[in-house]
Amino acid sequence: MLVDLYQQGRLDLDAFVSEEIGLGDVEAAFEKMHHGGVLRSVVVFQ
């Protein structure tokens, strides 16, 4: 149901993503999160 809402544009999940990071940046992302620098980081594989 949530996927359908997102695909229809009725659920704006993108607003909850602060940044996209690579796998090698996970440690730094946790540090930023603990210090309040970001809300949520999403790991992307390229």
- Count of individual beta strands: 2
What's the average pLDDT? 93
Strand order of the largest sheet: 1-2
The major beta sheet can be summarized as: 2 strands, parallel
Indicate the percent of residues in helices.
Answer: 25-40%
Radius of gyration, Cα only, in angstroms?
A: 13 Å
Shape: elongated
Euclidean distance between termini CA atoms: 28 Å
Spell out the helices and strands N to C.
Answer: HEHE
Low-confidence parts = none
Beta fraction of the residues? 5-15%
Structural class: alpha+beta
Assembly of the depicted chains: single chain
Count of DSSP H/I helices: 2
Q: In a nutshell, what does this entry contain?
A:
By secondary structure, the chain is of the alpha+beta class.
Describe this structure in words.
There is one protein chain. This protein is of the alpha+beta class and 46 residues long. It has a domain at 16-46. The chain is built from two helices and two strands; from the N terminus they run αβαβ. It has helices at residues 2-7, 26-34, and strands at residues 19-21, 41-43. The chain has a two-stranded parallel sheet with strand order 1-2. Helix 2 links the parallel strand 1 and strand 2 (41-43). The protein starts with a helix and ends with a strand.
